[in-house]
């Protein structure tokens, strides 16, 4: 054990002495270093388990980034260690790999059809540190050019003008904390700052003539402020926000260059809105038209065709994606072919506006690229991603269930309407009558995120190979269920979301086919906090837990997270500089309640994580071991907030399955 960790253990042992009258000796640590991986107390992975997992770990998907060179699709997919850029030029055609980096690339933005050059911008960091730099890939020369400073700065949110002459993006280069907006002249290579107001700014869309830029300042998932920059005078004009505070999504100029389309939950006619709707605003008339008024769910994205004849948008309806297309300018619905039930992303009109590309993903099929012929109402598949040679017919689709939690819905005059929590339930097939299934509860991060029924080889292996039921809840604070639901876990209400997991444990106890005595919890980032909090609040009801890059103390997390994220997270969790909030963090944080963890724990972390620093993992590992409890621990020196390299991901998944075998299945079997 290192000197630093020995000293940390001594300090932590003193801190927890007051909360634990009887402290067992810390278990001996068996440490192994292999390449960029450091593992502690993790047994050797049996060859049989590695072989059993192999096909599940060799599934892959393809995600649409846009159209390239006219009739080709630019997609992201992985054929080796990391996801790279590929081009596909025909339905089911060959995927031509364009980039070859040891690090994954992301954020690909193809040049518009009318641009003066052909290629795409992409983002890449180092070892998961999220200090993303922007690069240009040129189609003609196949060369790559660094566009940003190459230092410890974040650069993202690329928007390109119609003629490709200007590129706007956000950057923390000025002070490492604030996101300014820069505009780069793609011909001269010169960049200038157009917004440096402080805060988290992003570019949204260039006007058709390239003289104006829509921008927005993001405060939190529930609060942002849109505006417009005159690129000739430099004037920034913020738009009025009905109700004072609202959430905004995508903003784009209409083909006329004057009116705009946007997504918002601003009040309508003085009435509060729960969901984000698609809207059209004409400044000449002052009229705002709600285009998705009849759909009581969030609009997650929209895109306009270059020829100005169509608009496509996607709604998130109880976790399922639904595609809609409107003809412009009258906003009439366009009939579409039937699409598989699942998730929709990557929507992009072809340069001529006649076709719409999209990514489709379902619980039983990984992401693939499809194209819709709008006139012919025809859906055509462009990629068929591998599922490791597995029989896809054996994959399990989840059932959407709702379970009651501890409180009532606000506004119920009788006070009798229990709040219901949605969850996706993956149940093994062909379970013998009378058999009780062990359960894993998987909790998403964010917390302003949403678990949705996308393809997961992890879920399919749990269900099909280990015979474990998987429950994936969207506890309060999750996105997708309205602004009230989103705010129910903010600041001092943090543990109410943990109580929603307690209610799920109560629901499991009522299910004749689920085994309440064999329940594990699994989650990453904020979901990692939820794992630890569940293990401290319900120790007698949890058999084992897996915490991935999780928060163990909100105070130390906010102190050590990267500067550019701190204010964003304070808006959700609370401000640690406030003595009352600091005391609240001390009271609820798993680190200060580690003595209550009585089940085996597995902690996984990336050393370069800028969001949840690796010290969050180290301190909870030492604290729990200080109480004599066994802890498995893995640290990847070349990863950040999650594991993006295949070798690392494969090892972590195999170790996790071994952990479930030993601590969730073993004793009961």
UniProtKB/TrEMBL annotation:
Give a single Pfam family match.
Answer: Peptidase_S9
What residues does the Peptidase S9 prolyl oligopeptidase catalytic domain cover?
Answer: 455-664
Task: Give the GO biological process terms.
Answer: proteolysis
Name the InterPro entries on file: 6-blade_b-propeller_TolB-like, AB_hydrolase_fold, Peptidase_S9_cat, Peptidase_S9A, WD40
Q: Does the keyword Magnesium apply?
A: no
Regions crossing the membrane: none
Please provide, alphabetically and separated by semicolons, the GO molecular function terms listed in this UniProt record.
serine-type endopeptidase activity
The alphabetical list of record keywords is: Hydrolase, Protease, Serine protease, Signal
State the source organism's domain of life. Bacteria
Look up the signal peptide feature and give its range.
1-17
Note the PANTHER family from the entry: DIPEPTIDYL PEPTIDASE FAMILY MEMBER 6, SERINE PEPTIDASE S9 FAMILY MEMBER
Name-wise, this protein is: S9 family peptidase
Specify the species: Marilutibacter alkalisoli
């Amino acid at each position: 054990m290192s000197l630093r960790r020995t000293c940390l253990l001594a300090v932590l042992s003193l801190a927890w002495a007051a909360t634990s009258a009887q402290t067992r000796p810390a278990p001996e640590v068996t440490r192994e270093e292999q390449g960029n991986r450091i593992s502690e107390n993790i047994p050797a992975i049996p060859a049989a388990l590695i072989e059993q997992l192999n096909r599940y770990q060799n599934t892959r998907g393809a995600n649409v980034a846009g159209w390239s060179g006219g009739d080709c699709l630019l997609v992201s997919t992985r054929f080796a260690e990391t996801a790279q850029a590929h081009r596909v030029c025909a339905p089911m055609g060959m995927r031509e790999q364009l980039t070859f980096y040891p690090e994954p690339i992301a954020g690909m933005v193809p040049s518009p059809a009318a641009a003066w050059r052909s290629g795409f911008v992409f983002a890449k960091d180092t070892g998961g540190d999220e200090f993303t730099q922007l690069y240009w890939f040129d189609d003609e020369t196949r060369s790559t050019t660094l566009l940003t400073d190459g230092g410890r700065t974040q650069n993202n949110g690329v928007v390109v003008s119609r003629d490709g002459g200007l590129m706007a993006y956000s950057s923390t280069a000025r002070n490492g904390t604030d996101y300014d907006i820069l505009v780069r002249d793609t011909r001269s290579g010169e960049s200038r700052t157009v917004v440096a107001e402080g805060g988290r700014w992003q570019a949204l869309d260039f006007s058709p003539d390239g003289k104006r830029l829509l921008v927005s300042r993001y405060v939190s998932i529930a609060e942002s402020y849109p505006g417009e920059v005159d690129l000739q005078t430099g004037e920034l004009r913020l738009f009025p926000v009905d109700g004072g505070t609202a959430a905004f999504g995508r903003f784009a100029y209409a083909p006329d260059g004057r009116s705009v389309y946007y997504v918002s939950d601003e009040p309508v006619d003085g009435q509060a809105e729960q969901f984000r709707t698609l809207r059209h605003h004409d400044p000449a008339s002052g009229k705002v038209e709600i285009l998705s008024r009849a759909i009581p769910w969030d609009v997650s994205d929209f895109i306009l065709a270059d020829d100005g004849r169509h608009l496509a948008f996607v709604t998130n309806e109880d976790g399922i994606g639904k595609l809609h297309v409107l003809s412009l300018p009258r906003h009439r619905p366009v009939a579409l072919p039937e699409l598989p039930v699942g998730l929709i992303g990557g929507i992009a009109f072809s340069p001529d506006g006649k076709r719409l590309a999209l990514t489709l993903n379902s619980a039983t099929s990984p992401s693939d690229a499809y194209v819709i012929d709008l006139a012919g109402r025809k859906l055509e598949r462009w990629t068929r991603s591998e599922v490791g040679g597995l029989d896809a017919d054996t994959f399990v689709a989840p059932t959407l269930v709702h379970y009651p939690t501890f409180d009532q819905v606000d506004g119920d005059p009788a006070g009798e309407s229990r709040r219901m929590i949605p969850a996706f339930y993956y149940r093994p097939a062909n379970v013998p009558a009378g058999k009780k299934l062990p359960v894993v509860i998987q909790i998403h991060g964010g917390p302003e995120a949403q678990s949705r029924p996308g393809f997961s080889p992890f879920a399919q292996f749990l269900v099909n190979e280990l015979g474990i039921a998987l429950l994936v809840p969207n506890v309060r604070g999750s996105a997708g269920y309205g602004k009230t639901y989103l705010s129910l876990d903010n600041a001092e209400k943090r543990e109410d979301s943990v109580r929603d997991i307690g209610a799920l444990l109560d629901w499991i106890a009522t299910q004749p086919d689920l085994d309440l005595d064999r329940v594990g919890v699994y989650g990453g980032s904020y979901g990692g906090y939820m794992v630890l909090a569940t293990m401290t609040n319900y120790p007698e009801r949890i058999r084992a837990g897996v915490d991935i890059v999780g928060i163990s103390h909100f105070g130390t997390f906010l102190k050590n997270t990267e500067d550019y994220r701190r204010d964003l997270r304070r808006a959700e969790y609370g401000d640690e500089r406030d003595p009352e909030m600091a005391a609240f963090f001390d009271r609820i944080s798993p680190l200060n309640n580690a003595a209550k963890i009585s089940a085996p724990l597995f902690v996984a972390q990336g050393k370069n994580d800028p969001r949840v620093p690796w010290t969050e993992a180290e301190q909870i590992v030492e604290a729990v071991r200080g109480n004599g409890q066994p802890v498995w621990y893995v640290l990847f020196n070349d990863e950040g907030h999650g594991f993006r390299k295949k070798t690392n991901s494969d090892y972590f998944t195999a170790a996790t399955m071994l952990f479930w075998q030993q601590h969730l299945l073993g004793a009961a079997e």
